[in-house]
Amino acid sequence: MVLRDASGLVVDSLNYGGLVDPWAAEGYQAISGPGQSGCHVPAPGAAMEFRSASSASNTSAGRFPDGADTDSNCTDFLKQAAATLSAASAVGATNIKVSSVEGFDAGQKIMIDTGANLETAVIATVGTAGGTTVGTATGRGATVIPVADAIGFRDGETVSIDSGANSETAVVASIRRFGASTITVASPLTRAHVAGAQVSGTGITLTAALTLAHASGAQVSDNVPTPGAPNHYYRAAH
Q1: What's CA 186's distance to the chain center, in Å?
Q2: Is the C-alpha dihedral spanning 208, 212, 213, 218 positive or negative?
Q3: pLDDT interval class at 238 (50, 70, 90)
Q4: What Å distances lie between residue 140 and 12, 19, 110, 154, 172, CA to CA?
Q5: Has residue 144 been placed in a domain?
Q6: How does pLDDT run across 4-43, given as a tens digit for each residue?
């Protein structure tokens, strides 16, 4: 989007949802890192490679602080942090597994679920994303784990596999997200794991226990759009 004055000169511009036109980017034309392509207004929703039918919705992107313009789309715009539960959470749980940890920070107030099942919580610590189950039984010494899906996981993160006496941790070496999803770990597994065993990142730890149970796929967000009033955004202090 480009705004021109009466003489045709560009007064302001922005790229929304991706770097469409570098000269109109208002900021750095290239930023290194996963999913980065330059200064643009972030589109609500998960990155395309992690998007699924249960991706978080009902979020917005906007200028923050409202009315500020530093001529950098990287600085001026925020999107509301949003994810979905990648594993069900029981009453009394103090840790939730989420599809993404982007935009969440310690001390932040979040909303979990919607409607009558909505509750709020405060984040104690933010870990890593992802939550799934072992797809088919995996033996001791294996390095490739068939999983139900690999949404939210990233190379290099530490994951927990199984529970109780059969639990172990591993570091993700690579991920196959399409077709038959698999997670390849850096070192051979030390235990065998049955189909259905939990595989998850460290998730988000809360300052107090949940008072309600929440199903896998429930939305987790810091704010939601407020039609007819200014939307609310959160920027970490660090």
Answers
A1: 23
A2: negative
A3: low
A4: 59, 45, 39, 23, 16
A5: yes
A6: 899 988 888 888 877 777 767 777 766 655 556 678 887 7
Q: Tell whether 141 is covered by a domain.
A: yes
Residue 56 lies inside a defined structural domain of this protein: no
Alpha carbon distance 14, 24 (integer Å): 6
Please report whether residue 229 resides in a domain.
Answer: no
Provide the pLDDT for residue 34.
55
Structural domain of 154:
131-200
Number of compact structural domains in the chain: 1
As a whole number of angstroms, the distance between CA 40 and CA 72 comes to 8
Token readout for 97 is 């597994």
How many other C-beta atoms can be found within 10 angstroms of the C-beta atom of residue 5? 9
Q: pLDDT averaged over the chain?
A: 86
Whether residue 205 has pLDDT greater than 60: yes
- Integer Cα distance of 144 and 134 in angstroms: 11
